[in-house]
Every structure is written in C-alpha cells, then in structure tokens.
Amino acid sequence: MSQNANQAGRRGMEQFGMVASAPGLDYCVSGAQPYSLDFAHTSDVICLVLGEIVSQTQYDDGPANPLTFHAETAAFHPRNSRMRIEAKTVRHGFIAFSYSGEFQRGISDKNVAAPICAGSRENIGGDGIKHLVRYARGRALSTGGVNHWEMHCLATLTYLEATRHLNGTGGQRKLKMSDAEFERLNEYLSENLERSVTCADIAGALGLPVRVVFDGVKARTGYSLYRLVLERRIDLAQQLLRDTDLSICDVAVSCGFSSQQHMTALFSERLGVTPLRVRKEHVSPRSTAKLTSSLTCSAP
After folding, report:
1. Cβ–Cβ < 8 Å for 137, 50
2. Which of 29, 46, 113, 48 shows the shortest CA–CA distance to 83?
3. Strand locations in 220-287, DSSP E?
4. Residue 275 near residue 237, CB atoms below 8 Å
5. Which long-range contacts (CB under 8 A, 24 or more apart) does 291-295 make?
6. Domain ranges of the chain
7. Which of 82, 135, 169, 252 is the most buried (most CB within 10 A)?
C-alpha cells in the first residue's frame, strides 16, 4: 500500500503500524484515539469498524463531508484512491486490511469488479460482518493480541463477507463440502501442519472456494478453519511432547507454530498448562536423563 501525507498534521496508515501477515496481505489495528489520516493506496482496503467513528471525510478530489462510521460495520476503499479523514470521536478504533490483487484471486470465487468501480462504501452491515467485528474487537483488545494465522483467517473472512454484500450475493451459497472433501482436508492438514499454510492453499488443495471450506468446517466440527488448524497443531504438539525427545523449540517448529513462545502461550490459553508441564508429566524413566537438554533449543 503506497501512502502519503501531504497536509500538515496528517499521516498515512504507517501511524497505526502496518504489519505484513501473508504475501499480499497487510493489516493494522488503530487505537481509540482521534486521528488525522491522509493516504493513497494501490491495493483494495477493507476496514472492520470496532466502534463508532465520527469524522470529516474526503474521498479523492470530492468535498469534505461529515461522516459517521457506525460500530460493527465494514468499510470498503478501492485501489488507486485517496482518503482524508479527520476522526474527532473514536470508540475502539478499527482494523484495516490491505489486499493485493494476487491475494484476492487466491481466495475469491466471485467477480469483485463491481464494488471496485463503485468507489468507497461505508457502513456495510449484516450478521456476518457484525460477528467478525465482535470477534476482532475482543481479540484486538485482549492482552494476548492476535497471531498471524488468526489475522489471516480474519482478513479472509472479512473480504468474503464484505464482497458478498457489495456484489449483492449475500444469500447465494450453493456449493457444499462433501464427506470425501472433508477427509481430504484432514489428510492435507496432517501432511502440512509444519508449514505456514494459507486459506488459499487449503482451498486450492481441495479444489473448492475458500467460502465453501469455511462453511464446511464449521458445519462438521463447530470450529472455524482457524480454530481447526490451531487444535490440530496443539494435538500434534502434545503427542510429540509425550512420545519423542524433540526439544520444545523443535516441537513448535514441527507443528507450525511461529515460535516456542507462541506455542507456550496457546497451551496456557487452551489447556491451562505449559508444554514443559506436559513433557514432565509424561516423561519416562528412560528419557529422564535427556529431559534437561530437550526442553529448549539452543540460541542460533
């Protein structure tokens, strides 16, 4: 996303700390403070509005007008456009996702040309958007924050929900995941948990639209795709901690966690124990002598 801030006192999205979550996907999380924003972008941007934002907003060369971004909605801003926003009242803030064309082609099964040509759109509502905002707000405001795989799934769902509304296809969901396809999904995850997989990777391996994969996983497991992958990684990590002498660091890498610290935080959150405790509780007499050296990996 290219950015500029030509007017004094206004800054681009860099003021919120843009983060690259995956190839072609950047995101930032704002706080609840008033802000001045002036940015031009070459990628499509979708924002989840976590709480009401009262602003004076100008798009491209148009006039500046009063605009309220309502809580629990989304806003779409097309590529090759410019925004100038003076946000005077901000409650909770927003999460902004910047999507490259390549990323969109990997996850979308619909033509998004219509919303791109239609210009910016605010206050995109619906139950799906509302659910995503509530989830994002809870995670963004939590002390643990959001990890990259979680943010990747959130960005993908946000894109799918927003473009469905923009294209007027909110009720069209014809394809469903078959039992055989769900089995193929399980096989794919078992073979690729150590990799940094994306939603597009998973959908591509099954030959299904990403939306169908999300819906199929939810219908069969009650989990989101994010949660399913996370639970599989935690299950595999527990198995390796119990049955192998791999260091805890190597277990984290083998299960696709971004770091040993990330795995430890998730164990504490999901299981109420640390990986070290799991290993100690299941260590055999044969392995006791190796325990100390296997707990952590040496620094590079």
Report:
1. yes
2. 46
3. none
4. yes
5. 293/247, 294/245, 294/246, 294/247, 294/248, 295/247, 295/248
6. 13-166, 179-222, 228-294
7. 252
Rounded to the nearest angstrom, the gap between the alpha carbon of residue 45 and the centroid of all alpha carbons in its chain is: 14
Phi, psi of 58 (to 5 degrees): -130, 130
CATH classification number, 13-166, choose in 3.40.50.300, 2.60.40.10, 1.25.40.20, 2.60.120.10: 2.60.120.10
| Cβ–Cβ < 8 Å for 26, 102 | no
Structure confidence by residue, pLDDT tens digits, 73-108: 999 999 999 999 999 999 999 999 999 988 998 887
Please identify which residue in the block is written with the tokens 């993908």. 156
Angle at 260 between CA 257 and CA 265, to 5 degrees: 85
Write out pLDDT tens, residues 17-26: 878 877 899 9
- The owner of tokens 């801003």 is 77
Do the strands 81-90 and 53-59 form a parallel or antiparallel pair, or are they unpaired?
antiparallel
Residues 6+ away with beta carbon under 8 Å from 248: 241, 260, 263, 264, 275, 276, 279, 294, 295, 296, 297
pTM, two decimals, is: 0.79
Strand partners, 55: 67, 87
264/189 Cα distance (integer angstroms): 21
- Distance (Å, rounded) from C-alpha 197 to C-alpha 293? 30
Q: Which fold has domain 228-294?
A: Arc Repressor Mutant, subunit A (1.10.10)
Cα torsion 59, 63, 66, 70 to 10°: value is -20
Distance of CA 155 to the CA centre of its chain: 4
Strand partners, 162: none
